[in-house]
Every structure is written in structure tokens, then in C-alpha cells.
Amino acid sequence: MLQLLVDGLVVGSTVALGAIGLTLTYSLLRFANFGHGELLTIGAYAALAVVGALAGFAAPPIGPFSFGWPLLAALPVAAAATALVALAVDAALFARLRARGAAIVLIIASFGAALALRNLLLFSFGPLPEYYSREIQIAIALVPRSVLGGMRVTPDQAFVLGLALACMAALHLFLSRTVLGKAMRATAMNPDLARVAGIDTAAVIRATWILGATLASVAGVFAGLTGQVRTTLGFELLLPMFAAAILGGVGSVLGAAIGGLVVGLAESLLTPVLGAEYRAASAFLAIIAILLVRPQGLFGKAAR
Fold it and tell me: CB–CB of 41/231 below 8 Å?
């Protein structure tokens, strides 16, 4: 039982970071970006490229982890590369369509952008899965097996969970304490009023893309670190991310974070009951049950 909880939290932390970026984009731009999953994949492969470029350096694993300093150096590079791609797609596609005010066109365009980016990655890196490291990890026993089946966690899983929680805490402080964070919140609540008040909404939109892409790249690296780096990585996580955003309440950053953890826990806890082949379905069953009680989501506001 305890092992299922820790496994669910590790998966859920990755989903939560991706769902937060998805929610930020929706809050300000008012459309569901189905290309957001590809930003995770781009971040994962950008980090893989940096790790490969630094492979000539003697870089033993750091402590108990499976990776060395090249992966840590790759994280900010991957974030910057993913942010540049997000800004480029927005400038070339979404910004022009936003001027025409057709939300459905933006959604369809995001499908097209996702397909284009996914196939570009497939062409560039090939269909075979890759790994950041092939070091063998030994799980550390945190709780003995005599207590609810025990709890074991690999150092990489502990790293992912700890850094994901740190990213969420940093995001909360950024949105609540900084001038730009407050401007983003004001623009999300009322873009026209924010513009009249002197807020540079264009700069806020650019900051939103950068922030969402950064979180997506970190989520992509985490997913690759605890699994495989593959071109379908973001596509496979797209539905869980949307489910987390809807479960938490559309537009709520805190809700997206909690929703991601709930999705991860639901998948982990219900898989032994329903079977591994229904892993994704088990999470959606839990979400449906919650939404029947709170249709607006955990932190969403009820419609009036």
C-alpha cells in the first residue's frame, strides 16, 4: 500500500508540472493547447542532446543518483530551448490566430502544431527510446515490509519528487510575491482591465509561454529520468495533464498541482485492482467520481 502511494506521487509530480503549464496557458490565452505535450518531449530531448554532447567528460554519477553533473547542466539549457520553441510557435501561429478571436481555430491549430513537432522530433532522433543513464539503481527501503507492504524508493525518484515540489513552491511564491506574477494573475482575471491599468499584456503572454515551457521541459526530463526518452512521451502524458487541469478546476494553478498528484495516485492505487492494461482508465474513473460531486473541480468556482 505504501509503495503504491510513493509510486503514485512520483508519477503525479511529473503530471502536475505539465498540468500547471497547461493551466497557465489556458488562463491567459483562453484556449486548450493540445501541443503542450510536445513541449515535454522537446525538453526531454534537448536535455538528452546536452548530456550526449558532454559525454566525453568524465562525469561519474553524483552520490546515489544514476546521473552526473551533465544532466543538471542540461536542465536550464533544455528549459531555454523549450521556451524558445514555444515563443516561436506562438509568434508564427497562435499570435496571428488570436488576433482573429476564434478559439476553436486556435485549438485545431494546436493539434497541427503538435503533429508537426512530434514528427520533427521523430525525424531528428528516430523511433527508438533513449536513456539519460544506464546506471543500475538500488531502491532504498524507507519503511520495512512488515508495515503495509513497506516502502522503497530509488534516489532518482526521490530527486524527481523533491525537485518537483520545490518547483511548485517557487511558482507559488513567484505568482503571489513578484510584480510579474501579480500582472499574470490580473491579466488572467480580466485582460481588458489589465491593459487599461497599464499592464503590458504582450509581455505577460510571453512570460506565460516561457514559464509554461520551462515547467514542461522539467516534467519531460523527469519523465525520461524515471522511464524512457521517446518521441511519444508528451503525447502519452497529454490526457493525464488535461485530466489533472480539469480535476483541479480549470484555470487554477494550485488545482492543477493537486490534480496531477491525484491522477498519479489514482493510477497507482487502482492499477492492482483493475489491471495494468487499464492504468490510464483507472485514473479517469477516479476523476469522474470526484467531478460528479464537484463538477467545477477541486478548486474551481461554481458557475452562476
Answer: yes
Question: What is this structure's pTM?
Answer: 0.91
Rounded CA-CA distance 150/119 in Å is 43
CA distances from 296 to 19, 100, 165 (A): 17, 29, 25
Q: What angle do CA 221, 157, 170 make, to 5 degrees?
A: 65
Query: Which ranges constitute the DSSP H helices of the chain?
Result: 2-29, 36-53, 69-89, 95-98, 103-125, 155-177, 179-189, 191-196, 201-225, 233-248, 253-274, 279-293
Tell me the domains of the chain and their CATH numbers.
2-293 (1.10.3470)
User: Is 90 exceeded by the pLDDT of residue 288?
Assistant: no
The string of pLDDT tens digits covering residues 36-84 is 999 999 999 999 999 988 877 767 888 888 888 999 999 999 999 999 9
Distance of CA 273 to the CA centre of its chain: 27
> Which DSSP state fits 251?
T
HEC string of 152-208 equals: EECHHHHHHHHHHHHHHHHHHHHHHHCHHHHHHHHHHHCHHHHHHCCCCHHHHHHHH
Q: Identify the DSSP state of 141.
A: E
